[in-house]
Design brief:
It is built from 4 helices and 8 strands; from the N terminus they run E-H-E-E-E-H-E-H-E-E-E-H. The protein is an alpha/beta fold and 153 residues long. The protein has one domain: 2,3-Dihydroxybiphenyl 1,2-Dioxygenase, domain 1 (Roll), CATH 3.10.180. The strands form 2 sheets. A 4-stranded mixed beta sheet has the order 1-4-3-2, covered by helices on one side.
Length: 153
Amino acid sequence: MKEITQLAIIPILVADQDEALRFFTEKLELEKRTDVMYGPDMRWLTVAPRGQKKPEIALAKPDPSLPAIQIPNSRESIGLFSQYVTCVFATDDCLKTYHTLLARGVSFLSPPTKKVHGTEAVFEDPYGNLFALLEPSPEAHSRYRNQNISTAA
């Protein structure tokens, strides 16, 4: 029996779930998968690229009731906890996707740059969470072609 069977959810901290949902669905064109209210301050909200079953991205507000985790709820402070790339979105054409997302108002920290593993551009959401677009190099692409990877735009 396998203990861990798959990566299912990637939580991303956001200060405003509605604003985050607009960013991920309108700018990145991901689809909303789940939107359930469990109470006045408990909303389970997930998005994912179309056609990709798992993992999903959970747009999560920090829970102030957890005493062990003191995370401020402000827009400026959320990104302080995400100083590294949180997720990598695969694309067949990094430069084209970069220009599409740039035109939609997505803020990039680095333009498409050729690296050993492929062409990569790093962007952020409204809360400072970092993401990458990756067009795998032919060598890297052949290693991952059998995996279910979807594009961000």
